[in-house]
Amino acid sequence: MKVIRSNIVIPICIFIFAAGSAEAASYTVLEGGVDNGGTVRGRIILHGSPPPPRMLTVDEDMEVCGDNRPSEELVVSDTGGIKNAVLSIDDIQSGKAWSLPDEFVYHQEKCKFNPRVLLIKPKASGVVLNNDPVGHNFHTISRGIYNINKKMKSESRITVAKNKIRRPGVIRVKCDIHSWMKGWWIVARTPYTVLSDENGNFSITDIPPGIYTFKTWHEKLGETEQTVVIKAGETTETDVVLEL
């Protein structure tokens, strides 16, 4: 497979992400998969030195929740890689099958959401678990995607019925009892949506050849866009550099 090295530094264009502001275009899975698709891969990198993590005050149910803890809103590796950035190509009408599950599971463990950022397939069903021996108040905030504000007893669950998550976009998650608990649900528009790993690495595969808008979203650093050209059977390597 041919590799094209791009290593583009993207100019920052941070703005408020209008979660769910537009309806998703229909996406069709190609029978037999994508023939001779391309790949885009690289790293999400922080420009400059990261600031010390902001410390969160744990002031409720300390016997279960533990002590004060560092915020995970910006996690940067020793080599500058940014964890939990969302990379996506939304303007694809048809392509590979979904790898995200039809039913997701979201945990509350030791007064922390796990995972911090959850990718969700559109209209998927799911379950929210409280694994703690104390109660939580599960609260989602979005622009009409999926909004719930519900108390949860210890070691209980909430079921998210199929089609209750109405459309793609960003859902903010919090607990109204334990103020430090924060999380995000990202409802994908297409299967071409991935998370960067703990070293900032990402890879999106089986992309139909074409010219697309390549998006990067991060909860603290905002959103950027660039144009990416995907050629049949080729890999484009692109580093995305973000700054505070």
The CATH class designation is Mainly Beta
Approximate helicity band: under 10%
Principal-axes geometry comes out as: globular
Tell me the number of structural domains: 1
Span of the ends, CA to CA: 36 Å
Tell me about this structure.
- The longest helix is centred in the first third of the chain and has 4 residues, at about 60-65.
- This protein has one domain (about 1-240): Immunoglobulin-like (Sandwich), CATH 2.60.40.
- The chain contains one helix and 22 strands.
- The strands form six sheets. Strands 1, 3, 18, 21 and 22 form a five-stranded mixed sheet that branches. The chain has a five-stranded mixed sheet with strand order 10-16-15-12-13, with no helix packed on it.
- It is globular, with a radius of gyration of 19 Å.
- The protein has about 240 residues and is mainly β.
- It is about 0% helix and about 45% strand.
How do the helices and strands line up, and which of them pair or pack?
Elements: E1 2-5, E2 28-29, E3 38-46, E4 55-56, H1 62-65, E5 69-70, E6 86-89, E7 94-95, E8 103-108, E9 113-114, E10 117-120, E11 125-130, E12 136-141, E13 148-152, E14 157-160, E15 169-175, E16 182-187, E17 193-195, E18 201-207, E19 210-218, E20 222-230, E21 234-237, E22 240-242
Parallel strand pairs: 1-21, 2-7, 3-21, 3-22, 8-11, 10-16
Antiparallel strand pairs: 3-18, 4-5, 6-17, 6-19, 8-9, 11-14, 12-13, 12-15, 15-16, 19-20
